[in-house]
Design a protein that fits this description.
Length: 231
């Protein structure tokens, strides 16, 4: 089985996961009740797998799907304001075919980039528990293992993702420094053949307050793309 087939198989398995009762109940309840603005949508209402090519050189790791974003559309960072910011920045630096991501069939392509999260189900209040994070970690470990032949850089959005990603990289075979490096915007950590970058999350709280500007995000993505050999 080639890497593309193996990753597609992993994505299907992720989408069928029911390991965390609280998250299963929440994602399915949201899919039933919906938001008035999306009343005519058939919500995905399942775990959201990663998005992007199997030979990605750059991985972007978020937190978890949004209740009315990825949980609605079935694609990471698609259909919410965080995704609007992220995909616009990816487009601006030449890593995406279009600046918007509104549905899973909108034609968006990522160039050498894959987007994933340490928690694949939408959590209540956008806050997974540490136990849910740890239960979901094997999916990220398997994804990293499949991507390892080509992966050269990763951008982690936010402290939660950073705390989840470091042990996953270690389990997937990379040597992570001890003590584990602290999260910071602009942090850069060299693993074996991979550069890990920290970036504030593209949450509305960060983007509306100016803690993370479009320019700051583009700068991290450009640097990571250069480290990955995409520029």
């Amino acid at each position: 089985m080639d890497d593309r087939s193996a990753l597609a198989r992993l994505d299907r398995r992720v989408a069928d996961c029911r390991a965390c009762p609280r998250l299963v109940e929440w994602r399915e309840e949201v899919a039933r009740t919906k938001r008035a603005a999306f009343a005519d949508w058939e919500y995905w209402g399942r775990p959201v797998p990663g998005f992007g090519p199997a030979d990605a050189r750059l991985l972007i790791i978020g937190l978890a799907p949004a209740a009315h974003g990825g949980n609605r559309t079935g694609r990471m960072f698609t259909g919410d304001r965080s995704g609007d910011v992220l995909y616009q920045a990816l487009y601006d630096v030449g890593l995406a075919s279009q600046p918007t991501s509104v549905s899973a069939d909108d034609g968006l392509e990522l160039y050498g980039v894959r987007v994933t999260a340490p928690v694949h189900c939408a959590p209540p209040a956008n806050k997974p528990t540490p136990g849910e994070r740890d239960t979901c970690r094997p999916w990220l470990v398997q994804e990293l293992t499949l991507l390892r032949p080509t992966l050269r850089a990763a951008v982690v959005l936010g402290a939660f993702g950073w705390q989840a990603a470091l042990p996953a990289f270690a389990e997937a075979g990379w040597t992570v420094p001890r003590p584990r490096p602290a999260f910071a915007h602009g942090a850069r950590v060299a693993l074996d053949g991979l550069d890990l970058f920290g970036c504030f999350h593209v949450s509305q709280r960060n983007t509306f307050t100016g803690r993370l500007t479009a320019g700051m995000l583009r700068e991290v993505l450009r640097t990571a793309a250069e480290a990955a050999g995409l520029r």
